[in-house]
Amino acid sequence: MAITHLKTATKTPETETDTARAVVTEMLAAIEAGGEQAVKDYALKLDKWDGPIVLDQAAIAQRIRDVPQAVKDDISFAAGQVRRFAEAQRASCQDFSLEISPGLHLGQKLVPVNTAGCYVPTGRYAHIASAYMSVATAKAAGVKTVVACSAPFRGQGIHPHVLYALTVAGADIIMCLGGVQAVAAMTFGLFTGKPADIIVGPGNKFVAEAKRMLFGKVGIDVFAGPSEVAVIADDSADPLIVATDLVGQAEHGHESPAWLITSSRRIADEVARLMPELIGTLPPTARDAAGAAWRDYGEIVLCDTREEMVAVSDAYACEHLEVHCGDLDWWHAHLSNYGSLFLGEETNVAFGDKVSGPNHILPTKFAARYSAGLSVHKFLKPLTWQRMDRAACQRIAPISARISRLEGMEAHARTSDARMAKYAPGSNVDLGTPVEV
User: Rounded mean pLDDT of the chain?
Assistant: First the structure.
């Protein structure tokens, strides 16, 4: 048994982190001190935007007026898929109550956050799908106010298709802002008076770092970075399809890893040959991004057994994981670390990214070891409650008093003493030995 790296990345997801951290630290300090004016200054400097930040209904209608009906139909269909999946997720989580012992009732109530901030990136590409992935999911969870931000596209305001997607998904407030300044504005409630309880959505390394640094002041969906893809392939795989899917995600950006994990030397060699050819046929923007991503972050790992492939894949904990192998049920049962799983050649990442239904906002940088992607659960707080009658209180109080005193917490114990004195005066119940020091 052996694992051989036929191509190894020269960079890691952490390579650019220090640069991003320095930039974001400076920007967040300036925005916290300067408020809305600092945000406007960054919008002008970085995005060449000096128009209105919050869009009113008239501005939205004007901007999306010329979106073709066929485009609207596609966006509406895709948003509907995401909404239906999210609604099914919401239906799977339920409030409950339990009489755990006579007179003692415990329960859970699922309460959505009040305000969600949804970031939709627009830079190299117009990320239409990210609009409905975040907003429709938040609305399905029952969030009262969804504030959405997207950068001006080439200095001309929010891309009309992105803006239409935000409206179809149900955004309550839409702001023309991008980058760190958007994340900060939503966190602090600038321009809206509604500070976000949680910030969700993908973004570049600066957006990801801003979310990381603001975590605590605001909730976030996942610690995310550049998009990742891995393909597990055995000898039955089609190397052209495998290579095409790797390139399909590498076009996200210069720092987007693409990994092949295979038990077939033939597949490994053929994919290695095809990658530069396929990248070379892309239009300039995508060719530049995918070329750098494959050169610096691409890897090919050759394994002897499918158990080794599972071990390698779980160690990488990839954001998007495709399986091009026989016996898909075995892989589904044995793989455990991934953002989202795509089983079989017929099912690829792009389908999931755009239209299938499950969310495409997913953990990267090994976070799939402990975190799932965006779902209605991220917007819901499973709040617990409890209630007991006096008989139950008299059963629970002495145990609480004794444990509190064993811990040395006398004030805690006395909350039990007071109730026992009121509800059962003169009782001889053991309340523990009072704490003397």
Answer: 95
